Amino acid sequence: MTSTHQNNASDPFNAALNYGYGFLESECRMTINAVGLEPSVGFLHEFSSYQTKQSLAYDLQEPFRWLVDLSVIQAFESETLALRDFYFTGDDYRYRFELDAKQRFIEVLRERFNSGVVYKRGAMKWDTVIQEKTGELRKYLTGRSGSLDFSEPAPTLERIDSHLMREMILSLTESEARRRGIGKSALHYLRRNASRGESFKAYARTVHRIGI
Q1: 25 inside domain
Q2: Residues 98 and 129 both lie in one domain
Q3: pLDDT tens digits, residue range 93-104?
Q4: How far apart are CA 210 and CA 212, in angstroms?
Q5: Do 15 and 84 sit in the same domain of this protein?
Q6: I need a labelling partner for 21 at 20 to 30 A (CA). Which of 30, 95, 160, 185 fits?
Q7: Which residues contact 200 (CB under 8 A, 6 or more apart)?
Q8: Which segments of the chain have a pLDDT < 70?
């Protein structure tokens, strides 16, 4: 299913985006079917008279595309994906994923979709938010609710593990770190995480002391 979303990608980054959007589409299709809506009847996208084009699934993707966008950025920045993981097909001049790279990228997507957000006075995973919002759409369409708001919950998009921050951490000397109030053990922890390529977090006070 998601493989068809790579067909129009003329570069690796867009191949990853298309694959991620296919992953998101499958999530939307499942939740649409679960709540009993008709997937071919959309509002933003054209009505479809054939089953393979599910316009409502495309509609539901729109508020959640950022999940895929961030996943792709994270995958390339952390080198979970790299140019070597793609191959160019001469017959149609498109880029394709290597199989093991797909599996690594799927793990990045799952991690992002399973990340939490506060919604309705409690913590909720983003894949559960998609289910919740689809249920709210059903209530609105059936007259059980008089309003519908897809702007909440809003994502928090703060970056503290950017390429700039990694460079600053790795170039920070012990004496400079000490002058900025960063202890030796804290510097060791930061250097270790910054050199790994994986996403990491740091306390806001430490980020401020680094100079970001």
Answers
A1: yes
A2: yes
A3: 677 888 899 999
A4: 6
A5: yes
A6: 160
A7: 161, 193, 194
A8: 1-8, 47-53, 90-93, 157-161, 197-205, 212
Distances (CA, A) of 129 to 25, 96, 111: 15, 31, 15
Judge if 10 and 66 occupy the same domain: yes
3-state helix, strand, coil in the chain (%, to 5): 55, 10, 35
Residues 6+ apart with CB under 8 A from 60: 28, 31, 32, 130, 133, 134, 137
Domain around 121: 2-141
What CATH number does residue 85 fall under? Answer: 1.20.120.920
pTM of the model: 0.71
How high is the pLDDT of residue 1?
Answer: 43
Residue 4 has what pLDDT? 47
What is the per-residue burial (b if ≥16 Cβ within 10 Å, else e) of 119-134? beeeeeebbbbbbebb
> What's the domain count of the chain?
2
Structural domain contains residue 152: no
CA 168 to chain centre: 25
Q: Does residue 186 belong to any structural domain of this protein?
A: yes
Residues paired with residue 117 on neighbouring β-strands, in sequence order: 124
Nearest to 14 by CA among 86, 115, 84, 121: 86
